[in-house]
Queue: 3 jobs
Job 1
Amino acid sequence: MKRCWKKLCGAASLSFVLGLAAVNPVWGQGDRGPKVRVGSKNYTENVILGEMLTQLARDAGARAEHRMELGGTQIAFESLKNGEIDAYPEYSGTLEQEILKGETLGTVADIERALAARGVRMTGRVGFSNSYALGMLRTLAEELGIRKISQLRDRQGEPAIRRLQFGVSDEFMNRSDGWPGLAYAYGLPDRAQGLDHNLAYRGVRSGTIQVTDVYMTDPEIAAYDLVTLEDDLGYFPQYECVLLYRADLAERAPEVVASWRRLEDAIDAPTMIGLNAQARIERVSEERVAAQFLNRKLNTKLPVPPDNWWRRMLVNLGRNTVRHLLLVSVSLIAAIIIAVPLGILAYRLPKARQVILGGVGILQTLPAMAVLMFMIPLLGLGVLP
């Protein structure tokens, strides 16, 4: 019993230490070279690309940190503008339809000028386009004779079509180039539910939903035998992958920017699908996938981390435990500091009670993501927001 307890404590201690290292991965890289912070959005492809940028930056002599899975597009871009990160992977269609919407953007030069006004620069295309599409199980699509998105509208009177359940990713649900615009353009029924992108694939496979949004480089399309419906109205723009970085980084770390530009036209769509499949289907770590690709494609000599599932589990457990404790501690202390005086005030001043309770009620109804988006420009990333 004592031996088991010692092993458990040892594993917990190792997990905690590895977690600290994961929270601050710049430790151990020395004090030389410029500090570069790479970000990525919260899906596998972006994390793999972010890891490539991080490893190339280290190879160029920088002290690089990867702040992975920051969230959606707006959080990543605001973090870039505010200097919380120095670079992250993005897509041309997202730039036009989500980040720079409302501006006249006829050419690549127009996009570059709009980004420059925000202190951001853009590389050339990485080499692949990851456009949106709607996907269905091939067997169901063939059974219903559905090949185009417009057929979902034209055949709405049929009972089998009316019974179709739409489930799309949370970000797609709220993007200007996502579900609201798509449903309006095609006249689709407004009954889609938002859920996590990976859960949507599981829902399609299990039959709880029948239609979902897919990225064209998702390996699950082939793994689950899905068919992508033709966008016969041409609603979705092209989503060419590019790299965004802060303009001042070209002066602080020109070698890093030059190293990143080696990725231009280096990754075609089949290659990206294969890299995604390694991480999501074969469960290889994103760090290993990125290092192996860079060594093979760019002839780098990057160290390839061992594919140790237990170590990765302990790192993730430790990192998430540390983050959880930090977030809970800070938020709890802040809540006590604010709530206790307000509670005393509401008790002692009956006239102020309704104002306090009403204000607190309004704040409580605000979506957490909306509050976070407001906080990031003021407080940056990390524990404070």
Job 2
Amino acid sequence: MEEPIYLDHAATTPLDLRVLQAMLPYLTERFGNPSSIHRLGREARQALDEARGSVAEVLNASPQEIVFTSSGTEADNLAIKGVAHALLLEGKGNHIITSAIEHHAVLHTCDYLERLGFQVTRLPVDGYGLVHPEVLAEAIRPETVLVSIMYANNEVGTIEPIPELAAVAHRHGVYFHTDAVQAGGSLSLDVEALGVDLLSLSAHKFYGPRGVGMLYVRRGVPLMPQIHGGGQERNRRSGTENVAGIVGLATALRLAQEEREAYNAHCLHLRERLIAGLLERIPSARLNGHPTRRLPNNAHFCFERVDGESLLVKLDQQGIYASGGSACTAGALEPSHVLTAMGVPPEMARGALRLTVGRQNTPEQIERVLDLLPRSIEEVADV
């Protein structure tokens, strides 16, 4: 059997060996707790401080504005719940705005707050998955305290106009959070240029380890902690820090941003060949997401009369690893909420396929996919 082809980099990326090498000392001989005052503890604290400084430099932020978490999901939860609860206690309001195409880490957090009495507005998107600034402006009320719009969509790859959206929020005195988990390895994360108050990342999306994420919190933004204990992370996120994971996140993020231009060029070349080849060979295929404002590694399609799950099984049997959409909703029977919000008919949305290329993919692999995928679709199509 030929070497498998991994086209699910939006779900997770393989750990960069350079990142592993940076982490190894803190998994073995430098195992100290960074809160301990002895030498091993001081070594761990130094590594933690250096990692925080490295992340802050990439984000054009201050080290004190970086909070390490266990994941992007936790970072989203901390951002939304933390700001919402803090401002509610201050009597500022209880209205939150998000979009209909957010990751479930954001949507389900907003659902939870809604059950507690908060008001939530979920903004519509256009057929490309874009949130328009004028739509946001119309939704803001006097009691609005937070807007949370993702930087780039995890399913269809559409990149949102974050600086423009954040500017709208700030004109009304409203804080702005962006879930940048999918953007971490491909887009600029300069928080000053983006104009955001809070930003979430997850290491495993840019060749770092799973189980570690971070939240940028602009100085002065009120944030109520969601985990209580020893007061780590400047009392914003208690729990003994995952030093090895944090070192891995910082190393992976630095490498991703240093190599971003070359990485994007590599992915864009493969993605464009994939899109052009599939649209040529499968005329009924529908490309989802914005044609140009999209992540350089993302190609998302829908196919007529095709069950997406059956297609994924067929591809898996041939050594092609892909997904239908978000890995966090794998196995869901309903069509993607992202495609539904974009106006894709349910019968078409059930035939969704997300192909996301990465560092190890080659032009030869893409040609093999272009040979195998049309035949796989014919075999599973409901004719």
Job 3
Amino acid sequence: MTIKANVDKLLRNSTETSVPVRYEGSNICTWIGFKHVNYVIEEAVLEHFRSNGLGARELYERFGLGLDLTNLDTRIFSALHTDDAATAVVIPSGDDDRLSFTVKLSVMRDGKATKAATAQVDVHLRRGTYGFDTENDDGLLEPFAVESIADSATTLDLPDLDLNGDIVQQATAGRNAFAWKWRIPYMYCHYNERVQMSGFLRQMEEAEDLFLADRGISIKTMLDDRRWIPVVPHSRIRLLNEAIMEEQLYTVYTIEQVFKTLTYTARMDCFVIRDNTIVPVATGSITHGYAVIDDRSNWTLVDFDERVMTALTRGEKQ
């Protein structure tokens, strides 16, 4: 099949596939966390490219193009469990020069298909940097190819920072926020150099974990005290630039809104300092609630109590 036919199918045809959830994501009882729900969505998008003759390996090895998820906005409606296989439908939602997709996940419950999650996903094809020979694609992939991942239209919500001072302390001063500096390891990266979307999903998960521990309501503490677990109905991450292997990544996690006593939304801003300049590399948000574990397979949403509200809204360590 020709490249033109493959591109046409990629942009026009929907695909449906079964994606098993990963056992690694089963951290609390048999429920699968938000990060691994997003991994299922990522795998569905990758399969959409594969089934249309333009898999990630093909794109890179033949044409020198790295497949990058650059925007991932996911709403979760029903929990996935260990041993589930989600049915994923990928629907092209972009145009002839933009790779954008709607992904719908469903799972069987009591013999019926139940909506599990939906997501909006943007993809860019990033040109390789190592200068190997590539095949001619007749310009058909040109509309989707970029020299680097960059989104200058989106900015970070950060105070003015003195690069000669304590950046972590400045980033949280007077704000309901937590921040830390972290060396980017190779296992968060792909295509030899840059952090991939799954790496930022892992960073968002760690941001929540560190923030809650800092506020005295760590996940283990709440499990031991009252069998409460955090649940996530919505998450989103957008890549703004490239974060490179072994750079120092700064992550700022800020509580933006507490809705009554039901949910709270936190914003994650990530940046590096390159050539003595702050370079935003990713931004996103995550919405959390709490649920009490009823038994090994069921949970029930609960309202925040005074302890949780104090930790979230006043910034006081308990």
